[in-house]
Amino acid sequence: MSERVVVTGVGAISPLGLTAEQTWQAAVQGQNGIGPITAFDASEFSCSIAGEVKGWDAESLLGRRQARRADRFSQFALVAAREAVADSGLEITDENRASIGCYIGSGIGGLLVLEEQVHQLRDRGPSRTSPFMIPEIIANMASGLVSIDLGVEGPNIAIVTACATGAHSIGEAAEVIKRGSANVMLAGGAEGAIGPIGLAGFCAGRALTTRNEDFERASRPFDKERDGFVAAEGAGVVVLESYSHAKDRGAEIQAEILGYGLSADAFHITQPPADGGGAARAMRAAIGNSSLDLNSIDYVNAHGTSTPAGDLAETNAIKSVFGECLPPVSSTKSMMGHLIGAAGAVEFMLCVNSIRDGVVPPTINYEIPDPELDLDYVPNVAREIPVKHVMSNSFGFGGHNAALIVGAV
Question: Catalytic pick from 47, 163, 203, 351?
Fold first, then answer.
């Protein structure tokens, strides 16, 4: 019999706050974390707004040396991982460090440093390229740096599945524990790619909203007037443990991972099929893996990016899976934008806290119902209901789909 996998710690950095609890409280209150881009002059871009992390001071949190040798996505991962470990009460020692692993991925990796170094090469020549450039830009470095920082020597890889990265990392880390390859795993995702080249690419692909003047209402998942997502940044990391290990050390168990499903659309590089077939397969797999029935799911935290095609496909997928047993559905991207590789991890943390507090966070900016989208999207105001089991959906470019089910213990 495989090990049960539980959550004992959470950490997050997002446009809504510099900690997991700040992010959760802001989400419950329906706060907006989206605004005009401040990192660079974005006035010429078709989308000039984003979900930026506010008040970030890497040097004060990590020290000057470490901050200067890590791209922004890795900085976020380091701080979120430290928070998650502190929240878990886990003590890392010489006796247990080999049984603690780390699966922290990134959808894009060190794009900001790459762009900076391209300019350095062009303007000053190859001899002035930073010797730290490659270690800073590769997407596995967040996971590598966290393992170095915390001294954890167990399984360590970095999953890259675009916007499904954080969810896949958590799901696969749980599988590591189930098969007995580690007692504890740090898992999640990190992203810090709000720069000129990244924004230009998303704009050219017509993926982003153009509601620049109405930025507080720009991210509007499932609303009839949705016109694209809002790029965002941050990180989410959770501490996963085998149930027996957590109990033996007297840890406070926050929730349990009950189901994990994944699939491929095999359809298009950026667009899902309208019927949401791939997403539905991932959700069905997660439910089957959990041994729960459909009526047991109290809430679905949707991928809900605020794109015309994506929200329609996910709605159709949820309807096809749940039939007459439809639970409330909300998209927290309405408040913080789309954290790409970190999205699934931060949203998973919100699901854990939803169970803890018995609150479903809202979909803000839901004003004009779309006749084709007819679920209960928890519009604009959080809802207090008993929450025992939650599904969290994450879908990425390339047709990568993941669904996680987390429950009370």
Answer: 163
